[in-house]
Amino acid sequence: MAHPTDFELYGFWRTSATYRVRVALHLKGLRAEERVINLDAGEQLSPAFLAINPLGAIPALVERGHPPLTQSLAILEFLDETHPAPPLLPADPHGRARVRSIAAMLAGDTHPLITPRVRKYLAGVGGFDDAAIKAWMTHWFGAGLAAVEQRLASEAATGAFCHGEALTLADICLGSITVLARVNKLTLPPLPTIDRIMARCEALEAFANADPLKQEGAPKAA
Predict the structure, then answer these.
(1) Packing angle between helix 130-154 and helix 169-183, nearest 10 degrees?
(2) Which pTM value belongs to this model?
(3) Mean pLDDT of residues grouped by 10 in the chain (222 residues)?
(4) Domains of the chain
(5) Distance between CA atoms of 25 and 19, rounded to whole angstroms?
C-alpha cells in the first residue's frame, strides 16, 4: 500500500471529477492526502494553484518527485497502469473501447456543461438566475444520463456493472454524475438500469468513502 504522503490530491468535496479519483484510489488501496481547493472561494484561480494546473481545474494528483497529473480520466488510467489490481479496464480491445466510450459520454460530454466556471458564465454573462441554472443542469444531466441508460439497457455487454460483471472506469464515471445530480437535488427521468448498477456500486466501500457529503468542507446534515 502506498505511503499516505506518496500522493497529494487537490480537490473539492462537491466536484464530480474529484469523486472519480477518490473512488479509484480507494479501489486500488491507495491513500492520498487531500488538499482542499475551495471552488466557491475562487482558490482554483490563485497563482499557487495555477502553477499546478494552468486551467484552474481540479482534481490534480501529485506524486512525490513527479509533475502534477490533471484531468480525471488521465489520472484514472495512470492509476490503473501503475497499480493494475483490480483492473479498471477489460482485457479485450473492444471491451476497453466500450468502457472508455461510456466514460467519455459522462465525463467528457455531460459533466463539463455544468462545471462551476460554466455556471458562473451563465449567471454573469447570460443573466441566468438560480432557477435557470438549475433547469440548465437538469436538462444536460438528464440528456446525458438518458443516453447512457439507453446504451446500458440495450447492449448485451452490460452486466451487473456497466460492462460485464467487473467494475470499470465506466461505473466510476457513472457514479460521479449520479452523486452530483443527487447533491444538486435534480429531478431526472426514470433510469432503471443506471439505478440498478449504482445500487451495486454504492454498496462498495470505495464508493461509500468517496461520497461528496463525507468529505472535508461538505455541508453538515441538518
Answers:
(1) 150
(2) 0.94
(3) 71 96 96 94 95 96 95 97 97 98 97 92 96 96 97 98 98 96 93 98 96 89 52
(4) 7-86 (3.40.30.10), 93-209 (1.20.1050.10)
(5) 10
